[in-house]
Design a protein that fits this description.
The chain is mostly beta strands and about 350 residues long. The protein has a single domain (about 20-340), classed as Methylamine Dehydrogenase, Chain H, CATH 2.130.10. It has one helix and 30 strands. It has one helix at about 5-15, and strands spanning about 20-25, 35, 45-50, 55-60, 65-70, 75-80, 85-90, 95-100, 105-110, 115-120, 125-130, 140-145, 145-150, 160-165, 170-175, 180-185, 190-195, 200-205, 210-215, 220-225, 230-235, 250, 255-260, 265-270, 275-280, 285-290, 300-305, 315-320, 325, 335-340. The strands form eight sheets. Strands 3-4-5-6 form a four-stranded antiparallel beta sheet, with no helix packed on it. β25 (about 275-280) and β26 (about 285-290) form a beta hairpin. The radius of gyration is 19 Å and the shape is globular. The protein starts with 6 loop residues before the first helix and ends in a 9-residue tail after the last strand. About 50% of the residues are buried.
C-alpha cells in the first residue's frame, strides 16, 4: 500500500526532497524493492518500537527522525546531536528513545511529544553501539574506546565499566533474560559479563578480525556474530563435554557484513557490502533468501516479530541513503517516506 500525503506534510515536501520506497515479500530467487526518490542522508541506524507503531532512523545529517509505520508519515525530527548519529534504541516497551553517535552523547527523547528528555551520558569518544537490557533498567555503551560503560536508566549513574583490550567496540548485546552482556571488538573475541556481579563470565574465540555485530540467539544458548573476516559465526555458550558442539563459521564469500539482526529462533539477516540482505538459517547452515534493491552497502537492520501486528517486518538502512521495508512472512507491501538530503560530510 502507498500512503497519501496529508496537508501537514505538504509544505515540508515542497521545501525538501521526500521519497517513497515500496518493498514486497521476498522470494527465494530475486526479491526487489522499488525506489521512487533517493537523495537523503546516509542511514546509519534504524530502530523499531517493540510494542507500537513507531520507527526511528538516524544518520549523517545529525538528525533523528520518528516515523509512524501505520500511516507511513514522519511525525518528528529530533535535533540535539552535533555529529553523525550511529545508533538508536527504544527503551523497553515505552515511547522513549535513546540515541548516540560521534559527539559522545547519549540522548533520551520522548517520541510522542518529540522533546528531548535529557542527556543521559557524555563521553569523550565516538559511540558506535548502545544496548538496552530487556528490563529497561540498564543501557550499555560501546565505541572507540577500550571501556564498555553501563548506566542505570533511573538515576543516570554509571554502574559498571568493563575493560576491553581493544579500542574499537562495535558489537554489543544483552541476553534475552538480561543477565549477561556480550561485547565484540577488533580482536575478534566475544567477551560476556554478568550484569549483576560485573564478573567476566566467558571469553569466546569467534573471528580472525574485527566483529561488526552480534546477538544472543536460540534462548541465549548461542551467540551469532559477523566480522571483517567475512564469516558468520555461531558460538555455543553451554559446555559440551563430548566436544561435538564446538560452534561453526559460515563463509560469506565476497560479502563484507555490516549489520545483523535475529529474525526468529534460527534465522538471521545480514546486511552487506554487496548492497543486499542475506537471510540464513543457522540450523541448516543454508542461505534461504536474498533481498535486493539497495544500491549501497546495507549498514543497519532491525526486525519486528509477528506478535506486534507487523508480521515479519524487516527494515534496512544503507549508504545509498534509503530506508526499505521487507515483509518476510506475508504478501502485503509496506511503504515509507525517507528524509531530506544530507548536509553532513560523508566519510
Amino acid at each position: 500500500m502507498i500512503f497519501c500525503l496529508n496537508n501537514r506534510l505538504f509544505q515540508s515536501i515542497i521545501a525538501t526532497t521526500i521519497g517513497i520506497l515500496i518493498a514486497s515479500q521476498a522470494t527465494a530467487a530475486e526479491p526487489t524493492a522499488r525506489p521512487v526518490q533517493n537523495r537523503q542522508p546516509v542511514i546509519s541506524s534504524v530502530c523499531l518500537q517493540t510494542a507500537g507503531d513507531l520507527m526511528a532512523t538516524a544518520g549523517d545529517d545529525h538528525i533523528v527522525r520518528i516515523w509512524n509505520l501505520k500511516t507511513g508519515t514522519q511525525v518528528h525530527e529530533l535535533h540535539g546531536h552535533n555529529g553523525w548519529v550511529r545508533t538508536a534504541k527504544f527503551i523497553g516497551n515505552s515511547n522513549i528513545l535513546a540515541t548516540a553517535g560521534d559527539d559522545g552523547q547519549v540522548i533520551r527523547w520522548d517520541c510522542v511529544s518529540g522533546q528531548q528528555l535529557d542527556v543521559l551520558l557524555t563521553l569523550d569518544h565516538a559511540i558506535w553501539r548502545i544496548a538496552v537490557n530487556p528490563q529497561a533498567t540498564q543501557l550499555a555503551v560501546g565505541g572507540f574506546t577500550s571501556t564498555v560503560t553501563v548506566v542505570d536508566l533511573a538515576d543516570k549513574q554509571i554502574t559498571q565499566q568493563h575493560q576491553h583490550p581493544t579500542s574499537d567496540i562495535r558489537g554489543l548485546a544483552y541476553s534475552t533474560t538480561g543477565d549477561r552482556l556480550a561485547c565484540g571488538g577488533r580482536d575478534g573475541m566475544i567477551r560476556i559479563w554478568s550484569t549483576t556481579t560485573a564478573a567476566l563470565l566467558a571469553t569466546v574465540t569467534a573471528h580472525q578480525r574485527r566483529i561488526r555485530d552480534l546477538s544472543f540467539i536460540k534462548s541465549d544458548s548461542h551467540i551469532v556474530s559477523i566480522s571483517d573476516d567475512r564469516t558468520l559465526r555461531v558460538s555455543p555458550l553451554t559446555a559440551d563435554p563430548t566436544g561435538k558442539n564446538p560452534g561453526y563459521s559460515i563463509a560469506l564469500e565476497k560479502q563484507l557484513p555490516f549489520a545483523l539482526t535475529v529474525c526468529g529462533a534460527a534465522q538471521v539477516a545480514i546486511g552487506s557490502s554487496d548492497n543486499q540482505i542475506h537471510l540464513w538459517n543457522i540450523d541448516t547452515k543454508q542461505q534461504t533468501r536474498i533481498f535486493q534493491g539497495h544500491t549501497g552497502s546495507v549498514i543497519t537492520l532491525d526486525f519486528s516479530p509477528s506478535d506486534d501486528g507487523r508480521t515479519g517486518l524487516l527494515v534496512s538502512g544503507s549508504f545509498d541513503t534509503s530506508i526499505r521495508t521487507w515483509q518476510i512472512k506475508t504478501n502485503t507491501e509496506e511503504a515509507i517516506r525517507v528524509s531530506k538530503q544530507s548536509t553532513a560530510n560523508r566519510k
